[in-house]
């Protein structure tokens, strides 16, 4: 396991909200609301409806992960629009298998599978003024990384100063369980793809340029993404 001390910088958490409120509500949501949805009930005669089957699959996909260093609770999937559930979809691209493609306009992250399909994850993305696009690559990977607030944030919000030497990894850490650090031309961009514990953030633009996936999705993507993997961020 590699644990990094990371300065959130340009890709840091949304600094406009009170720091303590973010720490409570966002947990692993830094650099950083979807709407509740109704699920289909069982059909007549005991046959499950399509919605019921979808809910059952999502409940399994986003269930608790007790074997993590810091046990991860189940996602409250009632707070996630079903269109953002992880699924395999048809995807036409010339990018090589394994490439990660971020589509901020649709709040999706794709992992190209190489057979005309991709694994698609729902995401949160940068808010207006913090959107960016271009090619990058995964320069580093970290599990339960230490988070360090930038000096600019501490200046505006002195209460963040208690983490000036870093917030250790854990359930309340903004970087979450897994982080992919994005680089360009050998330099860290300060942007990441990270694990968010806030299901209501999926499908919204709330971050300072980073991209957040539900923790279970991020752990799934992280395990399949080696260092040097190409990342394409499409225009919003």
Automatic annotation (TrEMBL):
Keywords: Cell shape, Cell wall biogenesis/degradation, Glycosyltransferase, Hydrolase, Lipoprotein, Peptidoglycan synthesis, Transferase. Residues 98-234 form the L,D-TPase catalytic domain. Pfam families: YkuD. Pathway: Cell wall biogenesis; peptidoglycan biosynthesis. Signal peptide: none annotated. NCBIfam families: TAT_signal_seq. PANTHER family: L,D-TRANSPEPTIDASE, L,D-TRANSPEPTIDASE ERFK_SRFK-RELATED. Belongs to the YkuD family. This is Lipoprotein-anchoring transpeptidase ErfK/SrfK. It comes from Methylobacterium persicinum.
């Amino acid at each position: 396991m590699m644990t990094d001390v990371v300065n959130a910088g340009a890709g840091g958490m949304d600094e406009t909200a009170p720091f303590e409120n973010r720490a409570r509500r966002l947990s692993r949501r830094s650099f950083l609301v979807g709407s509740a949805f109704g699920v289909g009930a069982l059909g007549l005669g005991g046959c499950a409806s399509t919605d019921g089957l979808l809910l059952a699959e999502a409940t399994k996909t986003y269930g608790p992960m007790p074997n993590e260093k810091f046990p991860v609770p189940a996602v409250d999937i009632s707070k996630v629009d079903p269109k953002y559930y992880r699924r395999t979809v048809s995807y036409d691209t010339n990018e090589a298998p394994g490439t990660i493609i971020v589509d901020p306009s649709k709040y999706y992250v794709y992992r190209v599978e190489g057979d005309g399909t991709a694994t698609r994850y729902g995401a949160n993305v940068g808010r207006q003024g913090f959107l960016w696009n271009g090619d990058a690559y995964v320069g580093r990977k970290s599990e339960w990384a230490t988070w360090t607030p930038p000096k600019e944030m501490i200046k505006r919000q002195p209460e963040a100063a208690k983490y000036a030497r870093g917030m250790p990894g854990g359930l309340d850490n903004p970087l979450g369980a897994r982080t992919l650090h994005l680089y360009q031309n050998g330099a860290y961009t300060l942007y990441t793809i990270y694990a968010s514990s806030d299901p209501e953030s999926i499908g919204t633009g709330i971050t300072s340029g980073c991209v957040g996936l539900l923790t279970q999705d991020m752990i799934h993507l992280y395990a399949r993404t080696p260092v040097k993997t190409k990342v394409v961020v499409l225009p919003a």
